[in-house]
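Exercise 7.
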Amino acid sequence: MKSGALDMPDWSILAQRARHATMRLTTAMHRLDWVLLPVLAFALSRGLVFAVGLIGDTFFETDPGHWVAAPDSPFLSMWAKWDSQWYVQIARQGYFIRPGQQSNVAFFPLYPLAMRIVARILSIDVVFAGFLVSNFCFLAGLIFLYKLAALELGDRAAAQRTIFYLAFFPTAFFFSAVYTESLFLVLTVATMYFARTRHWLLAALCGLLASATRNIGVLMWGLVMWEWLRAGGWRITTIHRRKSWRSLWVYLRRRWDQPLIIAMIPVGLLLFMLFLKQSFDRPFIFIEIQSTWNRENIGPLAVLMRDIPRIFDVEIKRWYFTHVFNVVSTLLALSMTPFIWRKLGEGYALYVLILILVPITSSLGSVARYILPLFPLFIVLGWWGRRAAVNHTILSTFAIFLGLLTAIFVNWIFVA
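Solution. The predicted structure, written as tokens, is:
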């Protein structure tokens, strides 16, 4: 090279450095996929929900006379409909009983308590606080669900599909509404994740909070105990073998403290009942008051026989579509339990089955919302979506109906 000429860059060295930088970035993103992918699912699904909600609220006429949660914020009012008024009322005024009428003692305390705490810390209204709690818990729930699905399936791609299916499920707008769905999701998924990773104290604490969020949260006690039995080598398929029981007895003698820790889970429910006893001298009023919502416990089979034929009754008119959707959701969830048993184990399958059968003892009216926190359903769906055509079909179908039902919900038409 001539003296004084500019040095030319060594392109091979630059290319090698670029490859190394790309590899480091890829490795870093792979390590953070448990955060990045849930954030992406949250952002895309909430972008759709909020956009459709604004369009639906703006261009479709809403019947006048409905309760308005936040008069100064039409956006927040969109996400506080129907049962939201009870949580807002509890957060603002506390519990009460109106004899023979619908009363807020039917609703468990943790969610409105979280609303009140956040409202005081941030000096905001409880409606805004509820909106923040719901969305934050939903994002946290997606993170825990991704980690749990990856653990159960051993497949990060399937875990990714799992969280996207949940985020875009047709009734997933409830995760951003002033409802308990998000809080219950994150607590139940976290409970099971900690149980599967053998962190029994953390599992018990999350389960305790779940039982203070909904009455069916107490069932996490059974699911976590089932996992503890599995950790001790006990299986339902070997229940007839003496060796199985002998090994369980040895495990119990060595780990006798763990079942006691897990027994903390029902404490959330018991504390609420103690509060009701001291305040109203009626610890079971949250069950008794259900009759004021015209709910008669006639059993799941009778409800199915009553409500399934109604899909052919177009006289339902305004709520016909949502009724059909709730019936279809019920039948699909029930039909998936054998596949959950086969892929994830009997504990998950029984958990899903019970959490479907309990609410449909009186009605199918809200099943499409109740199945949102039933995470084993979505883990199995994530496994089924291995083929690109199946994955695209599920995701696009979910997204279309999510937009449709969101527009319906923000206009005070009952969905679930």
